[in-house]
Write a structure and sequence with these properties.
- With 180 residues, the chain is an alpha+beta fold.
- It has two domains: 68 residues, no CATH class; 68 residues.
- A six-stranded antiparallel β-barrel has the order 1-2-3-6-5-4.
- A hairpin with a 5-residue loop joins strand 5 and strand 6.
- Helix 2 runs antiparallel to helix 3.
- The longest helix is centred in the N-terminal third of the chain and has 31 residues.
- The termini are far apart.
- The N terminus is likely disordered.
Length: 180
């Protein structure tokens, strides 16, 4: 068997096995972006040509949507709520889920806050507690000696890391600590 066939046959088999998985992934993505049935029924009412039937359809589907919202089966959020939620989750590693409809235009790349308290960890590095209650630990760099009330900016850095600037001083590498 030639070297070409030794390399090509396993590669072709791998591509054939990967194709159904890729197709299934695309179908899952399409299903997750489809509007919920309670909302879709409201959209479908717009297509009715008769005004009386359209109004009756709107009344019926809006009642269904209101009941779904009241039962927490349907949650409606606006862009400001998405931004605030992503800000609160900044620095926490989460799996890739389309919780917010895949809106990448609301990406949070930095937060600005004040330090509400600071203390030294067992290894001597500083731990900053921000005004929102999130805790960040310095992992390397020079010692910062943070004080309550000082301004802090935490920015997304290279390779999934984060940098913090305390009181506009040069940045130090930090990690977000889990909630207590």
């Amino acid at each position: 068997m030639t070297r070409f066939l030794q390399v090509s046959l396993p590669l072709a088999a791998l591509m054939l096995l990967a194709s159904p998985a890729a197709i299934a992934k695309d179908k899952d993505e399409d299903a997750s972006t489809a509007p919920p049935p309670a909302y879709q029924s409201v959209l479908d009412c717009q297509k009715l040509p008769d005004a009386t039937a359209r109004l009756a359809c709107f009344d019926r589907s809006v009642s269904t949507m209101a009941a779904a919202s009241q039962n927490k089966d349907l949650v409606i959020i606006d862009r400001a709520t998405i931004r605030e939620t992503k800000r609160g989750l900044f620095g926490i590693s989460l799996p890739k889920i389309k919780l917010f409809g895949g809106n990448d235009d609301v990406e949070v790349n930095s937060i600005e806050s004040t330090i509400s308290s600071a203390y030294a960890a067992r290894d001597g590095n500083s731990v900053f507690v921000l005004a929102d209650g999130s805790r960040w630990k310095q992992t390397d760099g020079r010692f910062t000696y943070p004080k309550p009330g000082q301004a802090i900016t935490v920015k997304r850095a290279a390779l999934g890391s984060f940098m913090a600037n305390v009181n506009k001083q040069p940045g130090v590498k930090v990690i977000r600590l889990p909630e207590n």
